[in-house]
Amino acid sequence: MSSAPVLKVEGLVTELRSGGGSVRAVDDVSFEINAGETLGLVGESGSGKSMTCLSILRLIPSSVGRVTGGRVVLEGTDLMTLDEAQMRHHRGRRISIILQDPMTSLNPVLRIGDQVGEAIKLYRGLEGPALRDAIVDGLRAMRIPAPEQRVSAYPHELSGGMRQRVGAAIAMAGPPAVLIADEPTTALDATVQSQLLALLKDVQRETGLAILFVTHDFGIVATICDRVAVMYAGRIVELAPVAELFANPRHPYTEALLRSVPDLDVDVERLYSIEGQPPALDDLPAGCSFAPRCAYARDVCRERGPPRIEAGPLHHASCWKLAGYGD
Amino acid sequence: MATDAPLLELTDVRKHYAVSGGPLGLKTVGAVRAVDGLSFSVRAGETLSIVGESGCGKTTTARLILKLEEPTAGAISFEGRRLDTLDAAGLRHFRGSVQAVFQDPWSSLNPRMTVGRIIAEPMIVQARLSRQDRQDRVAELMTQVGLRREQAELYPHQFSGGQRQRIAIARALSVDPKLIVLDEPVSALDVSIRAQILNLLKDLQDRLGLSYVMIAHHLATVRHMSHHVAVMYLGQLVEIAPGRELFRRPLHPYTQALYSAALSTHVGRPLSEPALKGEIPSPLNPPSGCRFHPRCPHALAECSASEPALVEIEPGRRVQDCSCVRRLISAAAK
């Protein structure tokens, strides 16, 4: 593991158009990932996980919104300062993404070999027999059986798990330094999910890939992540090494969320339940966004945004309770 | 005791779908055996969950129980009466007694109806209560599932996912059912909302003595909710057991594979890639003998020869009597 982070996100802000104004879908998000490391990005729908990913890749259409602040430093280059041509040189080649639904992210009318080949040709400039070999190697590296035959298959001829491996082969074509995995296993059966997770971890061991893994499943987080960032209403409310987060969650939202998930090996009579629901971005409460649902909230929480508190080595959380409510 | 009689009973239920082929698609060339010899029962006040990978037949089973599909063979009985022999009055009674809550509350509620009307509709279909009494009942149901009665005038799009699932539950409850089929009731909901709905379902079961047949893939949720768990593979049961027993000691290699693929929320547990080979084969041409043998890490030569029967090995616990299962059980006993 190298000491300099491969990807460093600092103060990222993304505003989306909403009615006449705008809402902050990503609000002052900062984190870094080292080579060979997996950072989990956890949150509910609308918390800003996917918007963070798209912002890093500069894939937010201008009709939808734009990044209005912050830096995204990939291997020493701030992606936010690049023009589109320069950005294209990095996107896909050095930082790539694998999406949730391989049925919609693959082109249904192109053979999978051509789709993997398109990426390899673009990123590595291969042609002819060398390209054909690289396609087969790429499929084989993702443990797709009989890759020589599969190159001529269409996406609908493959199972969901195999399609996701094709998506991974395209994402790894660069090969990239950073892989963003946006809920890549949500649509898969549990046994197929474990196979894909094991594959990603093996690829990571062999290549030193840094992975940003977006999920809402704490089972995945516990199993494959090194550190975890918890998002709520566009902000990272807590970030910690994974064992530390599970053993010692400091933010009330993290704590409540962990308690509300049933466990495979432990019986509880009644699940802990968080009342209410996540706020709409165009109607955020004043102060801390979680305060209306928080069991520990006091007046200050409803008035001013919470300070970021260092809770331990590599562990921080943004909460007034941890700051003694400002006393 | 009367309560020991099963509320719902499936006896060797099969559902095969003809597959046509030939020059004009006029010939029947085979059959997809979506459900192939299913027997289990559910008692009053109990939850039976069905787990298995996509394509195992769990949704077809749910549709058969709801009488949205007719079995090709075998019998389904509710309160001791076979569904295929019900007269009009019996069928009406059945429709009121068995309700469903589906996975996606965005598509299962009519967007053009007010919530009050959605909840009242089963009562209207069943011709129960006067108009005024129905309105009172809607208000009562809304309170029961944690909604406010004033919200009856609103439309589904004005509610969040968790609230919509509450509406779907209120609709199911409106005709005082005895059994509710829950098809992935929380998997479309946000993590922080799931516990609310699971707690609501459990409370309603305790209060009203409801039975649930739940289809779900998240094993920790299944463990939390279920009295019995049935594991399906390619249209057949491979194992059925009291929930806690099943998770404490999964016996069938497929159950073991599902269990090992379920990710625990305990940090540091190694990612065990299931010993399972490949993916679920087509139910059009299921493998010979034990249907699981091509993927089974313990398969023996004889596994492809004879189809294993489901045998009771403990009270309430049945497992496919495959030679490799017998070997696993005796190894575990030592």
The CATH topology name of the largest domain in chain B reads: Rossmann fold
Q: What is the count of DSSP helices of chain B, taking H or I runs of 4+ residues? A: 10
Q: What share of the residues of chain B lie within helices? A: 25-40%
Gyration radius from CA atoms of chain B, angstroms: 21 Å
Q: What's the CATH C level of the largest domain in chain A?
A: Alpha Beta
Give the neighbour order of strands across the main sheet of chain A: 6-7-8-3-9-10-12-11
- Give the strand tally of chain A: 12
What's the shape of chain B? globular
CATH arch. level architecture of the largest domain in chain A? 3-Layer(aba) Sandwich
CATH superfamily of the largest domain in chain A: P-loop containing nucleotide triphosphate hydrolases
Distance between the termini of chain A: 41 Å
Main interface: chain pair and counts: A-B, 47 and 43 residues
Write the SSE topology.
The complex is a heterodimer of chains A (327) and B (334).
Chain A: E1 7-18, E2 21-33, E3 38-42, H1 49-56, E4 65-74, E5 77-78, H2 84-90, E6 95-98, H3 102-105, H4 112-124, H5 128-141, H6 147-150, H7 160-171, E7 178-182, H8 190-207, E8 210-215, H9 218-224, E9 227-232, E10 235-241, H10 242-247, H11 252-260, H12 299-303, E11 308-312, E12 315-318
Parallel strand pairs in A: 3-8, 3-9, 6-7, 7-8
Antiparallel strand pairs in A: 1-2, 1-4, 4-5, 9-10, 10-12, 11-12
Helix pairs in contact in A: 4-5, 4-7
Chain B: E1 8-21, E2 27-42, E3 47-51, H1 58-65, E4 73-78, E5 81-82, H2 88-97, E6 98-101, H3 115-125, H4 131-144, H5 161-173, E7 179-183, H6 191-208, E8 211-215, H7 219-225, E9 228-233, E10 236-242, H8 243-248, H9 253-261, E11 310-314, E12 317-320, H10 323-333
Question: Can you characterise this structure?
Answer:
The complex is a heterodimer of chains A (327) and B (334). With 327 residues, chain A is α/β, with parallel strands linked by helices. Chain A has helices at 49-56, 84-90, 102-105, 112-124, 128-141, 147-150, 160-171, 190-207, 218-224, 242-247, 252-260, 299-303; strands at residues 7-18, 21-33, 38-42, 65-74, 77-78, 95-98, 178-182, 210-215, 227-232, 235-241, 308-312, 315-318. In chain A, helix 4 runs parallel beside helix 7 (160-171). The longest helix of chain A has 18 residues, at 190-207. The model of chain A has no long low-confidence stretch (mean pLDDT 93). Chain B has two domains: 2-236, 3-Layer(aba) Sandwich (Rossmann fold); 249-279 and 287-334, no CATH class. Helix content of chain B is 32%, strand content 24%. Chain B contains ten helices and twelve strands. In chain B, helix 3 (115-125) packs across helix 4 and helix 4 packs across helix 5 (161-173). Chains A and B meet through helix 8, helix 9, helix 10 and helix 11 of A and helix 6, helix 7 and helix 9 of B.
